[in-house]
């Protein structure tokens, strides 16, 4: 299943995909974007809304040798492998594999290798992949010994019942040859088979849209030869009836799709804040935060006006009730670091400017009472998500602030996030026309 997050390749919008699967009466659905997990949370939430069991996975690229080797003559080819999360351990292993593929193994594509797959195989189910899978490529090269050796390695690495030989039937000649080889290997090595469809668009009539996406991604016209284009329009989300017909010769392959779905039971945890520990001189973090805020107001006003004190105590009660004492201390601390080291910091923007506590701590430079700004727009007991404090640092030195945070809390406690730009109507028309 390749969603819109298989950028300029997958033409399945997650909402449309889940709606269509629901209409088809499907009980479970997996997401396996190419080399990324960008869409996992959105997919999970949308599937849950429709009563469909979401299975989190990824179609990873496997390097021909080590992921660290990047010689064009030897390492430009790569193979495909499907990984699905059975549980939380599997999810943690999958995000480690995908992250390493980008940070260590990237060479035209993010790549893993056998070494790191062996280290992080627990809690995962592996499927051998499409025509670009290692086993399928060996079969097509008439290297049956190599195909068996590879299949046996995956079976031993992921364990009995966690590795499946994948069969696809998009009415292509090469697939029939691979299917014959897969069935022989399955019987010889006692490895189960599974039927899949390589889904790149929701409905059959969407094939042309996906073709245009590929053309945009490869900077070609739709009529030019393109190695990434599909030879027919069979790469859509097929119904159970269509899949049973396509694999009528092997009912076991259809049955195993349900067995795999039953094995995959990973759920995301939402609504629980996880903050790194912030050391304070006293054991009472709320009291420490209160004293820091009062000290800040004294520096600003000398004698604290009654209105300001009342507003501050109200804000602090809400902050404490919602468990965000440490959050304010953490943000104030790295802003203080920036100021002390001459790194320009913005005065604050967005709803955080409505917090007097943030103003007192030096997080923002705007007096919310003087400017009649509401704290409740920033934080109130009805809000279930963490408050969002937007901070602008000098772009030339923001790396120093990030390094400070990493050094203070540990590299495993700090992450940067990605944002996505989407093509709106005007840009989409321009790209398609081009």
Describe the structure.
With 434 residues, the chain is α/β, with parallel strands linked by helices. It contains 17 helices and seven strands. The chain has helices at residues 14-23, 40-49, 72-75, 88-103, 114-119, 134-140, 144-158, 173-189, 207-218, 240-246, 251-263, 285-301, 306-321, 325-340, 356-361, 398-409, 425-433; strands spanning 28-31, 53-62, 79-85, 111-112, 124-127, 163-168, 193-196. Strands 1, 2, 3, 4, 5, 6 and 7 form a seven-stranded mixed beta sheet that branches. β1 (28-31), α2 (40-49) and β2 (53-62) form a beta-alpha-beta unit. α6 runs antiparallel to α7. The mean pLDDT is 93.
Secondary structure blueprint with pairings:
Layout: H1 14-23, E1 28-31, H2 40-49, E2 53-62, H3 72-75, E3 79-85, H4 88-103, E4 111-112, H5 114-119, E5 124-127, H6 134-140, H7 144-158, E6 163-168, H8 173-189, E7 193-196, H9 207-218, H10 240-246, H11 251-263, H12 285-301, H13 306-321, H14 325-340, H15 356-361, H16 398-409, H17 425-433
Parallel strand pairs: 1-2, 2-4, 5-6, 6-7
Antiparallel strand pairs: 2-3, 3-5
Helix pairs in contact: 6-7, 6-8, 12-13, 14-16
List keywords for this structure.
single chain; 7 strands; about 425 residues
- Portion in helices: 40-55%
Helical element count? 17
Strand content bin? 5-15%
**Averaged pLDDT, please?**
93
Main beta-sheet annotation: 7 strands, mixed
Which parts are unreliable, with pLDDT below 50 for 5 consecutive residues or more? none
Secondary structure class reads: alpha/beta
Spatial shape: elongated
- Cα end-to-end separation: 28 Å
User: Gyration radius, to the nearest Å?
Assistant: 27 Å
- What is the H/E order? HEHEHEHEHEHHEHEHHHHHHHHH
Number of strands: 7
